[in-house]
Amino acid sequence: MEKLSLVLDLTGTFVFALSGALAGVKRRLDIFGVLVLSFAAANSGGITRDILIGAVPPAALVDLRYLGVSLFAGLITFYSSSLIARLSTAILVFDAAGLAFFAVAGSSKALAHGLNPVMSVVLGMVTGIGGGMVRDVLLAEIPTVLRAELYAVAALAAAGVVVIGHLLQLPVTPVVVVALMLCFGLRVLAIRYKWQLPVAKSEIAEEPPKFRK
């Protein structure tokens, strides 16, 4: 389980780093900004997960492979910026892939550290959405998880499959494959068909803040 978590972690790190770097290039950040964004997007969810389960210091801060993978993905993206115009959906696709890998990795590592099934599902979701939230905050945007189609729900579904497979003692590889496909498929279909959770209907208009003289 621990070896599987490492493989999924590094794979998720790479694809989320691509997502973060692509978002940085799109906003015309310099090379330092792109690399910072790639590292933050790739590792924030994993760092949060490790702190919550007591695996400190977090793997991303002691294992240079995480830093290396993040910077490698960031440099590839920065120097291939001419391709961005032809990759209109690339950020969403990489983000969906990163969400799937991290949700599965997070729940797997939580189980390996002895957490109960419910908290393992929650940690899977937190791992999946953490990097995207930090990326969006650094870009001064409303986090995707708060406004997009089935973002956290897709992560919960993948983590749930991992935990159920663990409880039923099913073979690990097929369970992981199903979980990855479910999360990625849900996210892509939600983007394609605009599936989303109910949104509050309010007649309250957003007004600018008023300051006293």
From TrEMBL:
Keyword Cell membrane (UniProt): yes
Transmembrane segments: 6-25, 32-52, 64-85, 92-112, 118-138, 150-168, 174-193
GO cellular component, one term: plasma membrane
Domain Glycine transporter: 7-79, 93-165
Annotated keywords: Cell membrane, Membrane, Transmembrane, Transmembrane helix
Membrane topology: Multi-pass membrane protein
Principal location listed in the UniProt entry: membrane
Subcellular location: Cell membrane
Family per similarity comment: Belongs to the UPF0126 family.
Official protein name in the record: Trimeric intracellular cation channel family protein
